[in-house]
Amino acid sequence: MAKFSTILIHEGKQLDKANNAIFPTITTASSFIQQNVDINGEYSYSRIKNPTRYAYETLLADIEKGIYATATASGVAATLLVLNLLPKNSHIIAMRGVYGGTYRIFEKLIKETSGHKVDYIDLNNLQLVKEHLHNNTRLIWIESPTNPLLELVDIGKICQLAKENNILTCVDNTFATAWNQKPLVLGADIVMLSSSKYIGGHSDLIGGAVITNQSTIADKIDVLKTTIGAIASPFDAYLALRGLKTLDLRMTRQCANALAIAEFLNNHRNIKNIYYPGLPDNPQYSICQTQMKTGGAVVTININGNRENVKNIIDKLQYFVLAESLGGVESMVNHSATMSHSAMTEEERVKMGIYDTTLRLSVGIEDIDDLLNDLEQALNF
Ligand SMILES: Cc1ncc(COP(=O)(O)O)c(C=O)c1O
User: Fold this and answer.
1) Which site in 49, 81, 205, 230 is 20 to 30 Å from 218, CA atoms measured?
2) At 60, is the secondary structure helix, strand, or coil?
3) Does the keyword Lyase apply (predicted)?
4) Mean pLDDT in residue range 292-312
5) Taken in order 23, 329, 326, 95, is the CA torsion positive or negative?
6) Residue range 220-255, pLDDT digits in tens
C-alpha cells in the first residue's frame, strides 16, 4: 500500500488518455460529443462530470480513504450540499465553536428555509450529546480542530455514538486535512472541507469538497451536486490538484513551524492564553496524539493587552500578513472578532471564547528563525 506522499503524486484518476500528458490538462468544454443517441461516453456535460475535476476529485477521495469525492465551488457550498441530504425540520447537533460561516448557514439560512434546528455543544461530552438527542436528530456536525480556538473532538467516540443512534456524521476537515487525520477511517460518514486553505495551499483559489466512503451517500450527493450545480470550475480544479501534489511537503514544514512557534509563545509574558493541541500542556493533547499526526499549522493566541496592543502587533508584524484566510504558504494573522467571526454578535463570540484580543496565526513555510524573530519584535510591548 503506497504511503501518503506517494498517493498524492500517483493515485486518483489522473491519466490523460488522449495525450499521455504527465499532468491532467484543463478541459474547459461544457459538452462532450456523443457517438450516437444510444451510446453515452464517460463525459456528457461538465456540470455532471468533467475530466479535470474528476482527476482532482478521485485524488481527494484516495487521500481521505473514501470511495467518492465531489469538488464544489467553495467550502460553504460543500456544507450546503451535505445539509441538503436532510429532510425538512431536522435537528442537528454541532460542535460548539464551529466556523463562523457554518454558523451563519445554520442560523441565518437553513433555519428559515428548511426548518432545521441546531444545538451547539461540546461533542466530547457524550452524556450531554445523549441528552440532546431527539427523534428528528439526523446529523452530528463535527469540526476538529475548530476555527479559531482549535478545540478537538474525539471523532471515533462521537461517530460510534451517532452510529448506535442511526445519525449521520460529517467532519469539517479543513484545518487538519487528510495529512493530519482521516475522519472516514475514524468512523465518520462524510468529510467536507474548504480547499481554499491547505488543499490548494497557495491562497489562489476558492473551493470545497464532500467525500464519503459509502456508496448510498455517494449516490445521493452526486445527484444533489448535479441538481444544485455549485461545482468547482476546471480552472479551480486544476489549481487545487496542482496544490494538492505538495500537501505532504507543505504540511510537514508548516506544522513543524507551528509547533516551534507554539513552544515559543507558551508562557510568553504578553500572551494570556495559547490554543495549540500539539502542546503537551494543552488539555486535549491526548486526543491530538491519538487521532492527529501533529497539532496542525494554526496557533491561536489571546494576548495580555487591549485592542490598541492588538492593532500595534498586527502593524509591526512583517511576515505574518493580515488576511482573512489561512492555509497558504505565507504566514498570516487574522483578527477573528472583526474578520473570520464577524458574522457573530459580540455576545455570541465572547460566549465562545473569542475576544477582541484573540489572534489566529496561520503558519507558513518561511524560515522558522525569521518567523520567531518577527513574533518576538511584534509582541514586545
Ligand atoms: C473550518 C472552515 N470550514 C469551512 C470554511 C468555508 O470555506 P470557503 O471559504 O472555501 O467557502 C472555512 C473558511 O474559512 C473554514 O475555515
Assistant:
1) 205
2) helix
3) yes
4) 96
5) positive
6) 999 999 999 999 999 999 999 999 999 999 999 999
- Give the position, in ligand 1's atom list, of the atom nearest the Cα of 98: 1
- Residue in the block written with cell 505538495: 246
Boundary (domain end) residue, out of 196, 211, 243 = 243
Evaluate if residue 323 carries a pLDDT over 80.
yes
Pocket lined around ligand 1, Cβ cut-off 6 Å: 74-76, 99, 101-102, 143, 147, 172, 174-175, 194, 196, 206, 208
User: Atom 10 (ligand 1): residue with closest C-alpha?
Assistant: 75
Is the pLDDT score of 328 beyond 90? yes
C-alpha cell belonging to residue 59: 485524488
State the amino acid at position 103 in one-letter form.
Y
CA atoms within 13 A of residue 277's CA, in its CB half-sphere: 29
Is 134:140 a contact under the CB 8 Å cutoff? Answer: no
Ligand 1 atom nearest 77 alpha carbon: 11
The domain in which residue 373 lies consists of 247-379
Residues 297, 373, single domain; the answer is: yes
**pLDDT at position 16:** 80
Positions marked catalytic:
47, 99, 172, 197
Ligand 1 atom with the smallest distance to the CA of 143 is 1
**CATH number of residue 369's parent domain:** 3.90.1150.10
CA 35 / ligand 1 centre spacing (Å): 41
- In the reported structure, the alpha carbon of residue 342 is separated from the centroid of ligand 1 by a whole-number distance in angstroms of 14
SS3 call for 118: strand
Q: Which of 330, 324, 322, 325 minimizes the C-alpha distance to 202?
A: 330
What percent of the chain has a predicted confidence (pLDDT) above 90? 90
